[in-house]
Amino acid sequence: MGVSVAIVGSGFSGIGLAIRLRTAGVTDVTVFERAGDLGGVWRDNTYPGAACDAPSHLYSYSFEPNPDWSRRFAPQPEILAYLRRCAAKHGITDDIRFGTEITGAEFDAAAGRWTLRTAAGEEHTADVLVAACGQLSDPSRPAIPGLDGFAGRVFHSAEWDHGHDLTGRDVALIGTGASAVQIVPEIAPVTGSLRIFQREPHWIGQKWDREYPGWRLRLNRRLPVLPKLSRFGVFAWFELLLNPMLVSRRFRTALSAHVRAMCRTNLRRVRDAATRRRLLPDYELGCKRVLVSSDFYPALNLPGVELVTSPITEVTADGPRTADGRLHPADTIVLATGFRSHDFVAPMRVTGLDGRDLGDAWKDGARAYLGLAVAGFPNFFLLYGPNTNVGSGSIVHMLESQFAYVLQAVRALAQDGVRYMDVREDVLDDFDRRTMERLDGTVWNAGGCESWYVLEDGGRRRNTNNWPGSMLGYRLRTRRLDRADFRITAG
Ligand code: N01
Q: What CATH superfamily is the domain 5-138+340-490?
């Protein structure tokens, strides 16, 4: 197919789309990657204990099943190796331009093409631009007064300093999200002291992880239907039980109490009753992402480990100080404080028709038709864009729906006489209005917590990240690209 495609980012989304395009006969595909290796978050997040918290047979491409996952929840090195293997097998690695950060892209309406600019000042043109930058790729550093004046070492969980041995050190770990609950059990046994700073607690269920025995792996290889069945089982669990609880009030009332009881049972592993009370959320289950861990709570019982819930007011040269006046001496601060989840493509600057700036178009929060297309930005698609995150399930499933949609767009553009396609403003507005209405009834909007899903801006709240339905619902909604949704310009 004579359409050229530029993909920015080589994580699960960029690699997967490149494979799907190549397999479909689109040969002119270039993937731009600012780092020196592929893998996105699975390249960057190398902190101790980093592993998937969605079961791996579902958290992998359906077109590249992996019978060799060593455990139900694969560790980060295995996932990264899997991505590298997939890219190499499909000849994608050679299509990636490593160490090339795209800083800006401008649409030329006369030519119907995008011009991409790199940080090194080079230019590259392509008919189609795909942002595959992820929602969780830019680390968020908290704006705590004094942090820059801390005398010890500070690093973010996604930029782990492996040269800094934590043995015997006094560590302050800020945050108790998905990353923190994986880090704590790994470092708590070796640190001299570990203070964990919690703002709002999370609901944490048990992680039913297990290593697959040798016979099971051999069977998986012999009978490919087995990993498929495993995939389907996990998919059904998410779709039939967990997702309805998040998106529907009725299911929430019926089911949530059971899952809360399971989390409370997990919490009983913490021996100290006062600590247990501080770990119990007072908002609805699912409002923040429900975490899974069987070893975070037991790690809090270890000597030298303390949960601190008084808010940090400043960081002095010697460590964080909290609102109760206590100074917490530390030589290392680990920021497990999450990601800038509302920026989507930033800092890349995207300029569409008539000089329209994507940052301006999104000044009230990011929005895109089906999370994929933005009016005024023709031949531009997002993967894992606004409102396509799932509160429970596998983002890889959502991505595969998007690959199929982008492929249809590329096919439409390959037809003679089509210069560009631009999603209609009214179609986007209508989709956005309905999405926001549906989100209002979900636990993320109504559950009484703050989370990385919801953008808070001067009293205004907008859920820019989550899809208000099921993975299957999204697949059906994106299955067929309707040309009538687009303004198609000939030329
Ligand atoms: O980040 P988070 P994460 N002062 O945003 C706290 C994915 N993921 O890196 O909850 C003090 O969840 C913040 O407090 P609060 C997954 O989708 C996947 O852990 O806002 N504290 C919170 O406790 C996940 O949801 C895997 O009150 C501050 C923590 O920092 C997403 O990534 C593994 C603060 C941030 O938690 C993000 O997870 C890991 C401040 N100024 C992550 N600012 C898989 O296994 C923030 N916090 C697939």
A: FAD/NAD(P)-binding domain (3.50.50.60)
